[in-house]
Write a structure and sequence with these properties.
CATH architecture of the largest domain in chain B: Orthogonal Bundle
CATH superfamily of the largest domain in chain A: MetI-like
Strand content of chain A: under 5%
Structural class of chain A: mainly alpha
Distance between the termini of chain A: 16 Å
Radius of gyration of chain A: 24 Å
Number of domains of chain A: 2
Number of helices of chain A: 15
Largest interface: A-B, 106 and 114 residues
Number of strands of chain A: 0
Number of domains of chain B: 2
Oligomer: heterodimer
Shape of chain A: flat
Helix content of chain A: over 70%
Structural class of chain B: mainly alpha
Strand order of the largest sheet of chain B: 1-2
Chain lengths: 283, 314
């Protein structure tokens, strides 16, 4: 273990470490603490210059309620759900198929196709922007939740295929081999044998894609115009314009936007990190 | 999904035919099955990702407002780019992003080393340190623009403490890009940290012990024993940081919209601005900018694929 385990050090060093930890964390998360404190203060505090001190009054319920009453934050949040959940299902489902095809079968195109998926995952969004927007306009999918979901699912397929393919590749190939010898059909092998084994990969991808899509701002700006389909990230920017210098409300809305991915992360931390550190653990 | 499935099963559930027939079917089911599994995803990916790349490059040779007729202009968009000051500003800012964003890698490593202990509650500390990465960049951008506000932001307070006049970071042409990069580093450091924490988990204790016996300590141990073992983590950290730097869009859109006077623009935002904003719908010109950005990214993509290819063979 590196660095030297602290429990082998003197008592002084140990106490010092225990003391530094919370201080370091406090500084690291200071931006978040500040925005949280602001979201529960009365507007008068901010005008009086009390930005980082203790709020003169705790208005948590009032401020957060005001965000919902005075803006369309509720609708934006619901739109985010309507965009994120179907995308996760669609893209993770499809990547099980592509990942399986590219890992289990040895055919000439397996590596080139795999590399195309990987490369596509890295391209800058802007190179896709004009044609994708054009395609959406022409097919009537512009400014609809469906249009955004279809694009997101297609784009995330690059990353998901990379992940799935490597995951399935690491499974013992003899399992599939022996099932084939027993005469089990290819789809049955996929459905009954491989799919139950890739459950951890499905979980990891689901939380990760959930966070990516929930936090997407660029494509929401490009493909959505109206409030009826605007997700919360783009909505927060709209609110920022609406609540000019009402920082307590802007802060509350921002934190609301951050809650679902944060909850997701804490609930499924192990899977989340497994997804994120893909390849990093390979010796 | 199910239609693909039944097709694949129909192809393969062949019990009983004569031996010769069976071997023909066997060969062909193995050939056909991968394509049936691939088809839905491949079509989807082709329509929304692969084809648009080539369409964009194609559009970059046209003048087009997005609605009317496209007009072929050949290289004119690229020639115009070479004389465009805003393009050069964006390009230089992109270089700053790339260079300074790299600080996230050593900073992430430093925090990971700091947290790589087994005291009570350390798991919670690790998660909380990772926090900034989970939050949307829109929110990060809002938090920092508020921090940078000279009247009531934390920057104003710190400067005021020293009795100095606080700078308006986001309104200062020379400082603005660095202010935004600093905001972007916050979540990026968290990302690199988690990569290294996982990497440190897999460092072989035997080698560390052997190093200790050889009297390797501190920096020497880190450099000669630990870092070589963290190579995979470093590789991924560099890749995601480069991609993150070149994709920087959200923070700029939220914090400055490229201002003041285009001084905080990067290619990703400048492209968006030319193609889709109040400055007019110049899709052809925007596509030319996107193509340049794509070519820069292609260097890294090729590098990544080459590394992967080595792994696949090895």
């Amino acid at each position: 273990m590196f660095p030297k385990p602290i429990e082998n050090s003197s008592a002084g060093v140990r106490t010092g470490y225990q003391l530094i930890l919370p201080v370091a964390l406090f500084i690291w998360l200071l931006p978040l603490l500040a925005i949280f404190l602001t979201s529960i203060r009365p507007a008068a505090d901010i005008n009086a210059g009390n930005i980082f001190g203790i709020p003169s009054d705790f208005l948590m319920v009032e401020n957060y309620l005001a965000v919902f009453q005075q803006s369309k934050a509720g609708m934006y949040l619901w739109n985010s759900v309507r965009i994120t959940i179907p995308t996760v299902i669609l893209t993770v489902g499809l990547s099980c198929l592509t990942g399986y095809a590219l890992s289990v079968y040895r055919f000439k195109w397996a590596i080139p196709l795999f590399f195309i998926f990987v490369a596509g995952n890295f391209v800058p969004f802007q190179i896709l922007m004009v044609p994708v927007r054009d395609l959406s306009v022409n097919t009537g999918l512009y400014d609809t939740v469906t249009g955004l979901v279809l694009f997101h699912a297609a784009f995330q397929l690059g990353f998901c295929t990379l992940f799935m393919r490597n995951f399935i590749k690491a499974l013992p190939y003899e399992l599939i081999e022996s099932a084939r010898i027993d005469g089990v059909g290819e789809f049955k092998i996929f459905w009954h044998l491989v799919l139950p084994l890739v459950k951890p990969a499905i979980a990891a991808l689901s939380v990760l894609i959930f966070t990516f899509i929930w936090n997407d701002f660029f494509w929401a700006t490009v493909l959505i115009q109206g409030d009826h389909a605007l997700p919360i990230t783009a909505g927060v920017r709209a609110l920022n314009g609406q609540f000019v210098s009402q920082w307590h409300l802007v802060s509350a809305a921002s934190l609301l936007a951050a809650v679902p991915p944060v909850v997701m992360f804490f609930a499924m931390q192990k899977h989340f990190i497994a997804g994120l550190t893909l390849g990093a653990t390979k010796g | 999904m199910s239609s693909t499935g039944s097709a694949a099963t129909a192809l393969t559930d062949s019990s009983g035919p004569p031996p010769g027939d069976r071997s023909w079917l066997y060969r062909n089911r193995i050939k056909l099955a991968p394509w049936l599994f691939l088809l839905p995803g491949l079509i989807f990916f082709f329509i929304y990702v692969i084809a648009p790349i080539f369409q964009s490059i194609w559009i970059s040779f046209y003048a087009w407002d997005g609605l009317g007729e496209k007009e072929w202009v050949g290289m004119a968009n690229y020639v115009e780019l070479m004389d465009d000051d805003r393009f050069y500003t964006s390009l230089i800012n992109n270089v700053w992003w790339l260079v300074l964003y790299m600080l996230a890698v050593p900073a992430g490593l430093a925090i990971a080393l700091f947290l790589n202990q087994t005291v009570t509650g350390i798991r919670l500390y690790k998660s909380l340190f990772f926090f900034p990465f989970v939050i949307s960049q829109v929110v990060v951008g809002l938090i920092f623009s508020w921090f940078y506000n000279p009247d009531f932001g934390i920057v104003g307070i710190i400067w005021g403490f020293f009795g100095a006049q606080p700078p308006a970071i986001l309104a200062d042409e020379d400082l603005v890009t660095f202010g935004i990069i600093a905001a972007g580093l916050w979540p990026q450091i968290a990302y690199c940290m988690i990569l290294y924490l996982t990497g440190l988990n897999n460092v072989s204790p035997d080698q560390v012990e052997a190093g200790r016996l050889d009297n390797a300590k501190g920096w020497k141990m880190l450099w000669y024993v630990i870092l070589p073992q963290l190579k995979p983590a470093t590789f991924i950290a560099v890749v995601v940081t480069v991609i993150g730097a070149l994709r920087s869009f959200d923070l700029i859109a939220i914090m400055t919209a490229g201002g003041p006077y285009g001084s905080s623009n990067v290619l990703a935002y400048y492209m968006f601005e030319t193609a889709l904003s109040e400055y007019g719908f110049r899709m052809g010109y925007g596509s030319a900018i996107a193509t340049v950005l794509f070519l820069i990214m292609l260097v890294y993509i090729s590098f990544f694929l080459w590394r992967m290819y080595q792994d696949e063979r090895g």
